Amino acid sequence: MQNSVGLPGTLLTHTLAGVRMEGAIRAASVALFVALTAAAAQVSIPLPFTPVPLTLQPMVVLLGGAVLGARLGLSAQVLYLLLGIAGLPIFAASPVLPQGALRLMGPTGGYLMSYPFAAFIAGWLAERGLDRRYLTSLVAMACGLALIFFGGVTWLALFARGAVGIGAALRAGVYPFLLLDGVKLLVAATVTPALWRFLGSNH
Q1: What structural domains does the chain harbor?
Q2: Assuming Cys at both sites, which of 3, 31, 173, 194 could form a disulfide with 9, CB separation 3.0 to 4.6 Å?
């Protein structure tokens, strides 16, 4: 089923076709991914050689974009950031990094601020049907993850308090995470194609 502009559409638009209270369900779906992003932040593993903890957030951000689409995926992550800036304890737990707006000024600020854009690009690609097969889903997720790494490293290298330069930022913000984030990417890329197959077998 295509959306109103002739694109294949996302899991959410496909599921909501002909459903009453569509607006309320869209809002609830956004709220769900805000909550999932906050929950994923609590699965945080500090690493001794970098100020950037290992979390499950990137996987949830990318899945949110793919399921909700570009606009709603971006909206979910903007709302997550606004709630965190307002002081809710929804950023990753840290003994040294504060909750609230100051978290965005620290070494992880670039990763957090890139989440809306990563969700948008994953959603934009999903709206064009890339989330329906594993390999193209992997491409869509990889584009979003690359944007998260780019934002995180650029901020850590140039703008964060105590900016460390590009080389040190890559060593602290990319290299330690490539293997595990690659595994998370492989897992995340299986979810939407599986859901599409499930929906197809039930329609």
Answers
A1: 23-201 (1.10.1760.20)
A2: 3
